[in-house]
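Troubleshooting log. The previous structure file for this entry was overwritten by mistake, so regenerating from the original sequence record. Sequence copied from the archived sheet and checked twice against the printout by T.R.
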Amino acid sequence: MKNLIELLQAGVVLGDGGYLIELERRGHVDSGSGREKVGTGRGSGQFTPEIAIENPEALRELHREFVHAGSQVLQALTFFGTREKLNRSGYGSDTERINAAAVKLAREVAGDRALVAGSVSRTQLIEREGMESLGKASDHIGEQIRLLKDAGVDFLILETFFHLAEMRVALEAAARAGLPAVATMSFRPLVDRCSDGHTPAECARVMADLGAVAVGANCEQDPQRMLAVLREMRGATRIPLAAQPAAFRTTEICHSFTRLPAFPDDLETIQISRRHFVEFGGMAQTEGIGYLGGCCGCNAAYIRALATGLGRPAHSKPV
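Regenerated output below.
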């Protein structure tokens, strides 16, 4: 199996889709809507990845579906897997176990057909405690990246960061660990600025300067809405773009599906069709997208749609 850099040089790399919302829909993950006001970052927190140790077969099956749909990369389900976030959902003492188990599951399914990426997300500390908690966030992200390296990931996907300052410390931690990193910011409530006030172009330049092998956006917006962000980033850097859009419709007033009333328990009312992902796959090369996948709302059918847009067949046999 080629490494990530070699795959990027060979063409568009097709990643996988969203895990936590899909697993919540299948009855395996708690959305958290009954425990706290969603989106505040307070309380126990939503969508933590303890399924890796509590129901590994459910996670293994979703990995299989993504590989069968054509994914060249499987993300270990380590999103929101820092010790601080897991502490708030009662799993802090299992931090090492959850991260190691998630990587092992992804590796078992990937075999020699796909790379395994460690997913590292924002901590929510900046949202909860302010920018003065950046040092604490850096410590937690650094610890998780060390755990992922020890577990044997091929590279990192740093995703769903709202603050460029927190993305900066994540990329610095990735560099210290010697792991290649794909870096994607999330923009809300509008796509013109991230939460600490930087434009998509500014974000792209900083992430590239800090060593990311691909930069872009993930989550919050559907493919069409995300295009404006990606095009601005494309004008700011020469490295490949990375795009992992959500499969939910937003509005002109709010470009973020997690800020809409439908999140998290009425998302079916704003789901977009797979046709948009076929079209997005068809535009990937001309838009400079080197790493292409899906985020929230994207099950294997949406990854198959991207593969169709790229002109690739899905794998002929289930794994």
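Residues 4-309 form a domain with the TIM Barrel fold (CATH 3.20.20.330). Archived copy saved in two places this time.
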